[in-house]
Amino acid sequence: xxxxxxxxxxxxxxxxxxxxxxxxxxxxxxxxxxxxxxxxxxxxxxxxxxxxxxxxxxxxxxxxxxxxxxxxxxxxxxxxxxxxxxxxxx
Length: 90
Description:
Blueprint: E1 13-20, H1 25-33, E2 39-48, E3 51-59, H2 63-73, E4 79-85
Antiparallel strand pairs: 1-3, 1-4, 2-3
C-alpha cells in the first residue's frame, strides 16, 4: 500500500529546511500534523557545515502561518535557522 507521504509534493509547495535536534522531531511532527495538513514533515535531512536541517513541505499560501508556528515552537523545542526553497516557475 502506498502512503500519501511517499508521493511527491505539489509543485506550488515550499520546501523548508529547518535546523533542529533529532530528539525534538516527534514533538515537531505531532504539532504540525495537527494543522489541517498544511505541513508534510519528512525525515529527510541535509547536513550543512555540521548542522542538521530537516525537510518539510509547506503550502505556499500558508508560509506566514508556518513561520509564526516555528517562532512559537521555539519556546518548547530547539528550532534554529531555516532555509526556504521556492518552487520553480512553471
